[in-house]
Each structure stands twice: as C-alpha cells, then as structure tokens.
Design a protein that fits this description.
The structure is a homodimer.
Chain A: H1 10-24, H2 31-38, H3 42-48, H4 52-76, H5 81-92, H6 97-102, H7 105-113, H8 118-145, H9 154-174, H10 178-189
The structure holds a DNA duplex.
Chain lengths: 193, 193
DNA sequence: TTAGTATTGTAATGATTACTACAAAAGTAA
DNA sequence: TTACTTTTGTAGTAATCATTACAATACTAA
C-alpha cells in the first residue's frame, strides 16, 4: 500500500452523509453541510466519491439496500416470518421523535426526486419494489402453510403493505406518538392475520 | 384605479407556480423556473407576492385548502357522505400518469420541508390534519346513522384514512396503473364498510 | 535517504441562487 | 396636457452552490 493513509473510513463518511440526507433530503443538503458533518474537506469527499454529492447519496441508498438484505436473511432463518414482519412494523412505534420525523429515506427520495433526477428516483423506486417483493414472498409462503387465512392474492397484500409502509412514514411525522402509532399499525396488520 | 394595469391575474400566476412546485417541490424549483413558467419577470413576481418564492409556495398550498373547503361543502350538501368519500378515493385510480407521478402536493411538502422550513412544514401538516378531521367527522356521522358498521372509534378510522391517503400517493408513483390502484383502493376502503 | 503515490485541506472556479434597484411603460385623474 | 401611480422587464447584487486545482502532507518502497 502506497500514499498518504486515509483518515476517514468510507463507511463512516457515508453514514454521516446519510444522516443529513435522511433529514433534509438531497437538494436541501449542501456539500458544505456534508463537509462539516463528516469532518472531511470537499477535496477529500470528491477524491473518495468520484461522483461527488450524487454518488454520496447513491451510497446512502445502497446502505438501505444492505439493510433490506439483512432483513431477507432474518426471514430465511426464521420459522415464523409473518411474526417477524409484524414485529418490524410494530417496532416503528417505539422509535424516538427524531426518527419519526425523518421517516423513510427511500420513500422520501421517491417523493423528492420524481421529475428532478431520474436515476436517483429509479434507484429508490427499485428499493421499494424489492421490499414489496419480500413482503409478497413472506405472505405467499404463510398462506401455503395456513399461517395467514386471508384469501387475498399474495401480491395484492404485498402492495397493501408497501402502501402502508409509505403511509405510516407520513403519519409518524404528523403524530410522533407511540400509542397512536401502535394502534394504527395493529389495526392495519389485521389485514394479514 | 391608478397605475399601470396588471397583465397577469394573481390566480393564474399562483396556479402556474403551483404546477411547478407540485412536480419538483420547493427547493428544486428556482425563481428562474417560475419566471419562465408564469411568463412574469422576477420584478413582477416580487411586486405581486411580497414574500417572494416562499409566499408563492404558501399560496400554492392555500389553493389546496380551498379545495378542501370545497369538498367540505360537497359533504354538507350530500345525503351520503361516505359514498362521496369512497368515490373520491376510487377516482384517484382514473387520473393520468402525470398526476400519479405528482402525488399530493401537501403530503410531498410535509416530506420535503421537515427539518428544512418549519413554517411550510407546519402549514402542510395542518392541512393534512384538517383533512383527517373531515374524514373523522364523516365516519362518526355515518356510524351514528348506522351506515358504517365498524365499531372502531371514528378518530382511529380517520387516522387510518389519512395514512392511506399518504400511502396511495406513494403507491401511484410506483404503479401509475388504473387497475392496480383501483384494487388497492377498494381493498382499503373495506375498512369503512 | 530518496522517489513515488495517494490523501488531505484550502482556496479558487464559474454557475446558479433568491432577491432588488431602477427606468421605461401604461394606465388614471386633474 | 401634466402630474401621479403602479406594473413591467432588465440588469444588476451578493450569497451560495457543486466542483476542481493544487500544494502540503504522510505514508510505502527502494
């Protein structure tokens, strides 16, 4: 290995950038904001992430894709994926107020980037669709096993859940309140009883 | 009346600005964009709307409040408000692709403006809450009349519907498809049967 | 040491931002 | 006409934007 050693780990830079993007979105986050938050100068950021601000944002989305993969693995190793899914949704209510106000960076990006940046919009959209596909798979398997009694097609229920995901991430901004959210989530999860 | 006559009607300026804001959001819409779209120079826009870009955006939200009031009047004059509400939701599916991709300017604003502009966030948030309050009133009245059989508290069902409103406005971006949307809307409306 | 290499922070770049100063334009009232 | 008023488009303003040029830095390899 040659050259001056890295002072920042790429992962940490992306994580700190992601926090800013998650709160303020892409357009309202300036490179000066990112430089301050990460502690890395503009030169460093551009040397590390060749695509600049946009690449940094892409990496922030990719981190969410890894989170999705982690959840997929949890589902594969579980003997009750539906319970896992329900626990995931119910757990949202226990997050702190800041997390409620942030919502979901993927859903936020779809809203912000439509008509603004096709690439970022498409990547976020794909992430939502892949999440939906996971929901659908979980439901289909559970219907075969008889764990879910609803006769509604699995893909319809999958779309129902991704709709709910986007919806609850708006509701928690309006009502960052544990009890209200718990009640709403429990109510909506009845659909996959 | 004195002075040089207006060449643009305020209403039309707001409407054209609203179309841009609705598509691209607040931050990604520049004053130069607004000037081109409205046909009015920057000087004219600032002379007409003293608060500049932000005031123009506020007026765009106010127009949506007027739309809410119009819907409130429809409800008051209707002998079956629940049918009106269901028709409103089902009608979303029939919109064109552009409208699907735009979503709801109010819900979009809540997402974009949290942590960015408290005032605009608060105004959009209030608009969503007022919409929710209308849903709740419609449901409460229908429960009294026996039109809705669900014993779920009216305010819980109201929150359910505003969650669905935000959710469906994300789903229609992913699937700007009449049939898929019709099915999802019909499914979710079963909750207020 | 010495040469080579990659990262760092700073300072500049040119473009774009929201906004404003201002004079010309276009009307009314006397 | 003349005086007055308001709107209009243009040409600025200062600030901020994303990006880059570059020299100093800090390491490895020889």
């Amino acid at each position: 290995m040659k050259g001056r050693p890295n002072i920042h780990r790429d992962e940490e830079l992306v994580h700190k950038a992601q926090q800013l993007f998650w709160e303020r979105g892409y357009s309202a986050t300036s490179l000066s904001d990112l430089s301050k938050a990460t502690g890395a100068g503009a030169g460093s950021l551009y040397n590390t992430f060749k695509g600049g601000k946009k690449e940094l944002f892409r990496r922030s989305l990719q981190e969410r894709r890894e989170a999705l993969h982690a959840f997929e693995r949890d589902v594969e190793n579980s003997d009750n994926p539906v319970a896992l899914l329900k626990a995931f949704f119910l757990g949202i209510a226990d997050a702190d107020t800041e997390a409620h106000l942030r919502g979901c960076i993927v859903a936020n990006t779809v809203v912000e980037m439509t008509f603004v940046d096709r690439e970022l919009e498409a990547e976020a959209m794909q992430l939502l669709q892949d999440t939906e596909a996971l929901y659908t798979t979980i439901i289909r398997d559970a219907q075969k096993k008889g764990t879910i009694k609803s006769r509604q097609p699995a893909d319809v229920l999958g779309k129902y859940l991704i709709t709910f995901w986007c919806g609850i991430n708006s509701l928690r901004r309006i009502y960052p309140d544990r009890d209200i959210l718990k009640q709403q989530i429990a109510l909506q999860l009845q659909m996959i009883d």
